[in-house]
């Protein structure tokens, strides 16, 4: 009995498990190729610009884009997207890229709504300018409406720029999320050690 025990004890089995992770964080570098940090800084500037112009437009009695508080919620979306982009560039992960991608889509939809609303404001300003200046010759009204029209045009142009930037970032985020499926391969190595040889 003891001899059998020593014989069975002379052979020891050692199993080593090796986990290999493929497709982990490497595809997230596709998102970093879009330079989200620098685009995020630009989004912060656009958000601050939208906020400051919105404060000036709030004082106007004429109907403009601030009647629906468009500059304020759009500025909040720009600032949130910019902050998320900067943070994701520093600490990339699949969850952060997913949050960024969803915020980009929401901001693009909000930007499209703002563009439509500002086109309506352009038509109102043009009608006021045409009616007051050309029919009633009210000259003081022309500079006021011209200033409102130029302010809305600046906000319209910045919104178009932000939408283009967010579409490009969304493409990079989608490309990185599509190929970032984590796969774990477990390989077992069976090693037999003979104690007599030792």
TrEMBL record:
Transmembrane feature ranges: 38-58, 70-89, 101-125, 145-173
Statement: the UniProt record of this protein carries the keyword Membrane: yes
Keywords for this protein: DNA-directed RNA polymerase, Membrane, Transcription, Transmembrane, Transmembrane helix
Gene that encodes the chain: polr1d
GO CC terms of this entry: DNA-directed RNA polymerase complex
Keyword Membrane: yes
Superkingdom, taxonomy of origin: Eukaryota
Organism of derivation: Clupea harengus (Atlantic herring)
Protein's UniProt name: DNA-directed RNA polymerases I and III subunit RPAC2 isoform X1
């Amino acid at each position: 009995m003891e001899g059998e025990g020593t014989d069975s004890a002379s052979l020891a089995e050692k199993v080593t498990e090796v986990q290999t992770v493929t497709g982990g964080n490497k595809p997230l570098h596709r998102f970093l190729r879009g330079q989200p940090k620098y685009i995020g800084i630009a989004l912060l500037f656009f958000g601050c610009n939208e906020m400051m112009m919105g404060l000036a437009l709030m004082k106007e009695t004429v109907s403009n884009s601030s009647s629906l508080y468009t500059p304020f919620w759009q500025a909040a979306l720009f600032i949130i997207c910019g902050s998320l982009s900067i943070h994701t560039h520093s600490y990339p992960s699949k969850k952060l890229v997913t949050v960024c991608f969803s915020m980009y889509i929401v901001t693009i939809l909000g930007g499209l709504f703002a563009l439509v609303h500002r086109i309506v404001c352009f038509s109102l300003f043009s009608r006021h300018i045409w009616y007051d200046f050309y029919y009633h010759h009210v000259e003081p009204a022309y500079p006021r409406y011209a200033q409102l029209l130029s302010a809305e045009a600046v906000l319209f142009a910045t919104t178009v720029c932000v939408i283009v930037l967010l579409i490009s970032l969304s493409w990079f985020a989608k490309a990185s999320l599509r190929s970032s499926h984590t796969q774990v391969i477990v390989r077992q190595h069976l090693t037999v050690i003979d104690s007599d040889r030792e």
